[in-house]
Fold:
Amino acid sequence: MPATLALNARVLAATEDLPLLANTIVEGFLDGLHRSPFLGYSTEFSAYRAYTQGDNLRHIDWKVWARTDELYVKQFEDDTNLRCQLYLDTSASMDFGAGDHNKFLYGRLLSAALAQLMVKQRDAPGLVLFGPESRLALPAQSTRHQAVEVLTLLAQTHAVGSTAVGQDLFQVVDTFTRRGLAVVISDFFTADDTSFELLRRLHAQRQEVLVFHVLAPEELDLPFEGEYIMEDVESAEEVVVHAEDFRAEYQRRLKFFCDRLRDECIKLELDYQQVRTDEPLDHALIAYLEKRMSL
Structure:
């Protein structure tokens, strides 16, 4: 496995340079892949695909074959250029989780790292921010400065307001008519099933979809004791609960919600990954690579 890419609050606080941080993560990740047998990748993994009958034998990487007993063919720039559209939830519900476990910081950093990784694969990254004040779209392009534009937009955005999944966002989705990969990064917390509708719309557009369901450890484990006040960060509604009495019912409801989301993804033939914000980013990056290699 690649070296762990755990980041703590001190690291996040020490730099506001998102491009530098994302590049450092990706370089460390690639170095970890280079030193591991994971899928037979090397630091040039982005330019590989599985061998198929009829491929030019001169393009086979025999060193990878010697390590893995699998045939991989080197690809070149004009062979890749997969269009990869990132969808990042910027609603207030994402602004939850202590320190480096904050869902929005995690999702933004994951988006930045994925954009860098896509560029190194010679793919075309794009970005859609969906929230009440940040319903912005940067279409996937393979230009030289695309990664800079994606990272600049990410660095300027914040999590605020209610989740905005509606016609405005669907109209943006409908403009992406060329097939590609859509990566959705969200907690999927909406008052109704509109977040599910986003997945259905992407499926209808014949996009390959990878879902990262981002949850903080506090949400999953509910490690609180005694009586406390729960506040909805989007509506400001408050509820007084007693942790011991509430924990079992809360975890039952959360499991039901997560299972529904996973089942919807299975029904639509989408890839679902639940990610905890206390997990290293490399878990999510590996999930992306596995999806990328399957295309």
